[in-house]
Amino acid sequence: MKTAYVNGKVYLGKNRFAQAFVVENDLFKAVGSTKAISQIKVDTTVDLQQNLVIAGLNDSHIHFRMAALNLLNLDLTKITSLKAIISESKKYIKKHGLSAKKMLWAEGWDEALLTDCNRHLTRFDLDQISTTVPIYFTRACRHMIVCNTPALKQMKMFTKNFKSEFGGIIDHDEQNYPNGVLREGATVYARKMYTPPSLDEQIKIYQKMMTKLNELGVTSVHACDLTDENIENHYQVYEEACKRDLLTLKFYHQIWTSSPEKVHLFFSAFKKLQKKPQHEFNRLAHLKIFADGSVGARTAALQDAYADEDDNHGFLVYDDQKLDDVVKKATSENISIVCHALGDVAINQILDIFLKYDQTKKNPLRHGIVHCLITDPKTIQRIKKQNIVVYAQPCLYDSSMLFLKKRLGKKRFANCLTFKSFLDNHIKLAFGTDAPISDHNPWPNLYFAISRIDLTNQPRLGSTPEQKISLWQALDAYTTGSAYGSFEEKIKGQIKKNYKADFAILNQDIFSLKKLADLKKTKALNTYVNGKLVYQQ
Q1: CATH topology classification for 73-191
Q2: Where do the Amidohydrolase domain residues begin and end (predicted)?
Q3: Same topology for domains 2-56+497-536 and 73-191, yes or no?
Q4: Rama region for 393: left / alpha / beta (φ>0; ψ in -120 to 50; rest)
Q5: Which fold is adopted by the domain 2-56+497-536?
Q6: Would you report the helix, strand and coil content of the chain in percent, each value rounded to 5?
Q7: Which of 40, 127, 298, 430 is most buried when burial is the number of CB atoms within 10 A of its CB?
Q8: What are the counts of helices (DSSP H) followed by strands (DSSP E) for the chain?
Q9: Contact indicator for 120, 181 with CB cutoff of 8 Å
Q10: Using one digit for the tens of pLDDT, what is the confidence trace for 107-138?
């Protein structure tokens, strides 16, 4: 099947546009003017009606499974007071008939957004919701889960001086009982309690989430979902959906481990999954590890102490030897690593060990750093010289701006989210959302990178306007940058001859907006994956 798309504005790269293109089966076969394309013999012609067409967006780091399952759970991301959290939770419990045998699981609370509670939640807050229903609330950063007393008892950890066998931190009250706050590795206790829906139910909710992304022009994602003991089980859902020809996104799996003690589970499962037939829509990718935690939970590893907690430097998840062992083994097996690192100590730790096992300094496995928050000029030069890929999420820090400067201080704050410095130094930059930690919508993400203004129109990054990037740079980070991260930059991410026909026809010309803030209103009219229409407004 050969189809011509004519009379449009087709984005090709910086200041470059065409009017038309031809798709044959799953590939772009010609790109040019409407006049030139109209001379090619085709089976059918589509009039683009002067609408803008871009290559399909590619989210470089998204917890797709979590985002999908969150559609079934109580959403706390938009709630702005503890009082409202308690009220909405009680309504949810009543509506869904929850009891001591059926937990309440909710996602996305952030104390920075709560007008009546300028601190982390604890079991004492959640006990106000229910003293019978086990309650588990995941903080927006996902590096902290807070539980009520019934949940702590359900996990058999409501005893004095209880210590985590999975690492991380368990906070305690004045009587030395857990106060409900679980950080980093300790969150495993809570995650083990979650019971997922059936396979068919999961596929159904995946389809709903795929549609939500398709309608925004997203055609590919680097999904960070398969983890620890559940790597093969979670992969099965994608595999079955792929067999049923239900996938409308191309998935590239970042397989993550929750702690150093769990890494062996990755290597065991990865070998098994490698033996399965790989499909364009369902591919294995990287090993994803954690070097540190989050700034919100004060667990990101910093050289100097937190500005608002002067005895706390955060902490490293791995000591140098354990991290060395993991990188050495992965490299010897030609497995790429993407490493979560926000703090300056964590970023430089992983850079040291990446360098040790890459004497070429060309990074042939395309190792990367996810988030890469605090980068001074010296660190930026290290990233450049080692050719490390940076997986960044501009809008992830929208709510973080409320406390980031307070946590880090003015000097370190100025070295956060240095997108322009990355690009000026020719560092490979791939944008994503980290949903459901932030919203899955790519357009506010792009807006934030371009404007350095958060979604409430407050220039909280006004101290670093020099890190603004252009629209075309941001768009390329969401397309060609992400394609580079999956070794697909020669077949995907551009509207170009013999590239995969993944593209979106947009509802507005984002290059001609009178108000930049209108960028956030962008959606797709139609979205195509491999030349097939997967979404129509």
Answers
A1: Diaminopimelate Epimerase; Chain A, domain 1 (3.10.310)
A2: 45-535
A3: no
A4: beta
A5: Urease, subunit C; domain 1 (2.30.40)
A6: 35, 25, 40
A7: 430
A8: 18, 24
A9: yes
A10: 888 888 889 998 999 999 999 999 999 999 99
β-pairing, 218-223 vs 250-256, is: parallel
The topology (CATH level 3) of 199-485 is TIM Barrel (3.20.20)
Rounded average pLDDT over 275-288: 95
Q: How far apart are CA 197 and CA 39, in angstroms?
A: 53
Quick check: helix, strand or coil at residue 213? helix
Structure confidence at residue 499 (pLDDT)? 99
pLDDT in tens, 48-77: 999 999 999 999 999 999 899 989 889 898
- Token code pair at residue 160: 């004095």
| Token code pair at residue 179 | 């106060």
Q: Where are the domains of the chain?
A: 2-56+497-536, 73-191, 199-485
> Does residue 418 or residue 459 have the better pLDDT?
418
CA angle 466, 468, 471 (to 5 degrees): 150
Of 458, 422, 441, nearest to 519 by C-alpha is 441
CA 24 – CA 118 distance, rounded (Å): 57
